[in-house]
Amino acid sequence: MRIGIVSVFLILLTIFLSLQALAKSSSSSSDFQCKAWLVQSIPTDMPHLPLVPGVLSTGDVLKWMAGNASVSLDVMAQYWQLVSHPEDSRSGDYGYSQQQMHKFGADQGFDVYKALESAADRNVGIRLLSHSGVYPDYTEEPSNLASGRPNVRNVTLLLSDWWGSGIVHAKVWISDVQDIYIGSANNDWKSLTQVKEVGIYLVGCPRVAEMVGVYFNNLWKLASLNASAHTRTVWDRQWQINRTVPCWSHFLDVNLRSPLPDYVEVPHVAGYPVLVDPYMFVMPIHTPGYNEVLVSQPHYNYLSFAPPELSFGKNQADEQAWVDTIKSVTAGQTVRINTMDWLGQSQYISQTVVYSKQATVKVLVARWAHFINSTDPYLKSLLYSNVLCSSSKYNKCSGKIEIKYYEVPGYNLTGPAVSNGTKTGNSYPGYTRVNHGKYAVSDVRAHIGTSNLIWDYFYTTAGVSFGTYNPAIVSQLQKIFDADWNSPYAVPVVPLEDGLANSSW
Predict the structure, then answer these.
(1) Tell me, what DSSP letter sits at residue 315?
(2) Cα-based distances in Å from 325 to 108, 198, 273, 442, 469
(3) Secondary structure E strands in 110-228
(4) 281-283 and 299-306 beta bridge pairing
(5) pLDDT per residue as tens digits for the range 377-431
(6) Which domains does the chain possess?
(7) Which residues pair with 269 in a beta bridge?
């Protein structure tokens, strides 16, 4: 009888402890269902670019997110032009025929817009947060979605009021606080079929969605505050200029309490220090589009944000996440960096990373119709470090830097087909035919973001990144980069010494 009572007691105790453990893990148990797909937009007329198996289309993902949303949908974008306007003489689409627009893939943008309209009509709670947009549409599309629909709210946020410059540059969708898109694609039909984009689509990942949601809420809160009452002018010792910053910025010697729901607390220094132990969450992420065998164990993942004043908890600033990804490369391996723009305001490739680890750094930068001319001498100076490295017998250098320009065919033939009643000779609509992705991947870590490698994007511009040590995502992102790098569309940058040798000096 006693044995029976003890057995029953042990059984009940086991059940109790199991229920207790279940209750404690209930908030994150669904994370075990978290799935991730890498996402691309590939411009039309690029027949020599091999496709990477298992990578989804950006247009399909955004349409699915709007179509599957049942409770809430938060969308953050720089601008909206999902619906093309070839009939509008002010538009970069002007003068192209309907047949041409169909060939360009403009229908995909229209389909995404209609999916958003359908979600709004289903009474899904929608929040749309954007910069002021671009000519000629500006905020017309999100304003139309919100018009007459109390369940749809639309705000415009000018970060220049808070930081003196900068824009809402993040491209983020959050559906039902569990599915997320983070990537380089704007809410623009061209970003779906005429611009090279890269992002990540996370499904059934509430823990990640909640953290990205805090950042969204911080920006949403900024839009309702009086910027002049919450900003100060500070002398930036690094750049030797006066800058506008929020009153809680750690660029200020005496900073005030933040009105935001949550933000990062760090000791004051001249600017923002790196976090010694940035927050990373351990979580298995299934990769149905790639090798599931690689995800048998949980791996470290992280989120990073810009500007630093909008970071929260122990999440790192976006700049640190980029730098740490580059530093993560192991001895003798390769780190790959893809960006549209890169200027010499940052120190992402340093001797400690490249040469002490005998590593190779491959950098892919876009050349397009709106190429920043000062980029070329900066990139050539980076290449010249290879020469300096071997200029003395005392230099123990064995790593190297390789840089290529990515030229989407037709990049120099973009703009309206007709201007002032005259045919222009352009072959593609304006602001197309460009490699727009922003990511870095070493041999062990992948970083997928929304920021270009320019100082402003880290300190005055809204940006979000997702990073992971998941080997499946790392491997597949490497394949995306390598497909671009090895394609005929990637052209090596001429090293500085070659340019000098061929000059008239």
Answers:
(1) P
(2) 34, 17, 17, 7, 10
(3) 125-130, 152-156, 171-175, 179-183, 187-188, 197-203
(4) antiparallel
(5) 888 888 877 776 666 666 666 778 899 999 999 999 999 999 999 999 999 999 9
(6) 30-501 (3.30.870.10)
(7) 271
